[in-house]
Amino acid sequence: MFAGRLHEARMVESHHFVDILIFLLATVVAVPLSQRLRLGPVLGYLIAGGVVGPHGFSLISEIESIHVLAELGVVFLLFTIGLEMPLDRLKRIGLPVVGLGVSQIVVTALAVSSIVVLAGYPLAAAVMIGGALAMSSTAIVLQVLNERSQLRTRYGQVALAVLLLQDLAVGPFLVLLEVLENDGGILTAAVWPMLGMAVLKAAGAIVVIYIIGRLLLRPLLRLVCEARSSEVFAASTLLVALGTSWVTEQVGLSMVFGAFLAGMLIAETEYRHQVQADIEPFRGILLSLFFTTVGMRFDLSLTVESLLLVALLTVALLVGKSALIMGLSRLFRFSIWRSMRLGGVLSQAGEFAFVLLGAAILAGVIPAELGHLVILVVAASMAATPLYITLGSGWVTFLESRETARYARLGNRTEQGEHENRSHVLIIGFGEVGRIVARMLKTYGTSYLVLEMSPRRISEGLALGEPVFYGDASLVSVLKAAGVEQSRAVVVATGDSAATLRVVDAVRSSRATLPIFARVSDEASATALRKAGITDVVPETMEVGLRLASAVLHDDRKEEDTRDWVT
Predict the structure, then answer these.
(1) Which of 73, 319, 365, 456 suits a disulfide with 287, CB 3.0-4.6 Å?
(2) Which of 41, 48, 47 has its CA nearest to residue 26?
(3) Contact 128, 180 (CB under 8 A)
(4) What residues contact 431, with CB distance under 8 A and at least 6 apart?
């Protein structure tokens, strides 16, 4: 009996291993092909999922278990976005953006619900479908904006804020579904107290998480850093991200909102660059898995009539939602060009629709045939988003270019001004030499950022008001998180020749031509670093010798001057 169970367990494990191999093979083939056709990697993942999924060649057996794992990709995506969104930047978003986000959810849900009711379906089903289609895809929108380097633009930040407000609306819609299920699919007055309680519970949870995070997070990470173990630090990062996500899910909010909240709290600490580097590998592979599972929902065996209906409804959703968001954006006084871009980027339905529609079908609130049709439309709208955004952006750019030269110049300056100025010097090490370098740069008005591994030096630097962050500068991922791709130079002030060589190799892997300056202990180390491609080195022996000689000569001159004066 035991041998039989062991054999069965090994068979299950083998199936999972084969599923992973098939997933990797499909993405290795589909993604480069998609990029060669200039369609972007997201569409490549979706195509790969459609091919290997149950409606394609049915090569992957455990779809639901893979989908649970894939959802963590979206969680880590929002966590990394939160790392780049400190609270002070979130405060600058403003009330018009909040008004746009709330009105977009309400108006879109009402518009879609009205259409579904006019088509002859029950009001309860219409409300659930309206809520599902009012949401946009956080994963796809943020991934596309990242690929196009537009997440840091003003319109990218507005899109992110709207997506976060949509995530906050997940709780009320799930409460509404629970009420409809208990009341046999009929809307009653009992829904309002339950919705109010859900909102209060969610608000209370956010406040509690924020207070606990501000009080405990920095001491916890400092304690972990003192252990000098990269594995323990990475495990702590995962604990914070997943733990906060779990808590928010328990109080009726989405996991991705909890992940964003955790990232935002860590963004207020000096550890955010190392955290971002640690989470990046998990985010990348799991997010690609998420897009592939979305592609698995495409039913390639549909009849021609059904395909035409799905295509027609998908186009109607994309165009209709774009027009609605564009109109609301103009109502809240956004520029015509920004309104058009927002309409295009938020036009699709999102991953939350799969959860809400699936639960509504099981509860009997939405007829199964209608629900499955809407799920196909949701998946198709997500798949079409990268191409839709590319075409839409090209159209907006063309229209902008038709304006007068003066307006075009103003527009270019405005768009450039929307990006953060991150042209800084990266200082590695905050010992005595690093502090002198920082002091000189500050004197000349040059911005800088410091990476340091010693918790004591980090605390000392922060006490002085210096931008010192925890991070291993020999890792390319940490350097990228610290903005090495936008920096003007790197200064390695550690004095450890072996560590300096590792940092130089990492910097050269990121930017081959970036100027690198380093302090070294002797001429032999300087020679090795020059061979590694460093821009310039300052040997300590040479610097000390020159200073001693200068001091002696200066003292000799003073003696001669004194003798001349006496005689």
Answers:
(1) 73
(2) 48
(3) yes
(4) 457, 493, 494, 495
In what helix (H) or strand (E) does residue 469 lie, and over which residues does it extend?
A: strand 468-470
Q: Tell me how far CA of residue 312 lies from CA of 309, 326, 343, 377, in angstroms.
A: 5, 21, 19, 9
pLDDT at 185 over 60: no
The two tokens of residue 238 are 């995962």
Q: Which two tokens stand for residue 548?
A: 């001693």
pLDDT score, position 486:
84
What number is the average pLDDT over the span 504-527? 84
Nearest to 289 by CA among 554, 437, 71, 492: 71
Residue 416: its pLDDT value, please? 39
Cα(419)–Cα(283) distance, rounded to whole angstroms?
Answer: 24
Structure confidence at residue 31 as a pLDDT band (50, 70, 90): confident
Look at 175 and 218; give whichever has higher pLDDT.
218
Residue 10 has pLDDT above 70, yes or no: no
Average pLDDT for 22-43 = 74
pLDDT level of residue 13 (50, 70, 90 thresholds): low
Which of helix, strand or coil describes residue 383?
A: helix
Domain 425-554, CATH among 3.40.718.10, 3.30.70.260, 3.40.50.720, 2.40.33.20: 3.40.50.720
Q: By the 8 A CB rule, do 518 and 504 touch?
A: yes
Q: What is the pLDDT of residue 323?
A: 95
Check whether domain 55-401 has CATH 1.20.1530.20, yes or no:
yes
Q: φ and ψ at 427, to 5 degrees?
A: -105, 125
Contact predicate 160/395, CB 8 Å? no
The identity of residue 285, as a single letter, is I
Provide the 8-state DSSP code for 54.
T
C-alpha to C-alpha distance for 55 and 399, rounded to whole angstroms: 41
pLDDT at 69 over 80: no
SS3 annotation, 314-354: HHHHHHHHHHHHHHHHHHCCCCHHHHHHHHHHCCCCCHHHH
Query: Which of helix, strand or coil describes residue 93?
Result: coil
| Residue 175 or residue 183, greater confidence | 175
CA 130 to chain centre: 27
223 or 418: which leads in pLDDT? 223
Residue 407 has pLDDT above 50, yes or no: no
Q: What is the rounded average pLDDT for all residues in the chain?
A: 79
Tokens of 302: 């549909």
d(CA 247, CA 465): 33
Alpha helices in 227-271 (DSSP H): 230-250, 255-267
Cβ atoms 466, 450 nearer than 8 A? yes
Ranges for all domains in the chain classified under CATH 1.20.1530.20: 55-401
From-to residues of CATH 3.40.50.720 in the chain: 425-554
Which is more confident, 238 or 318?
Answer: 318
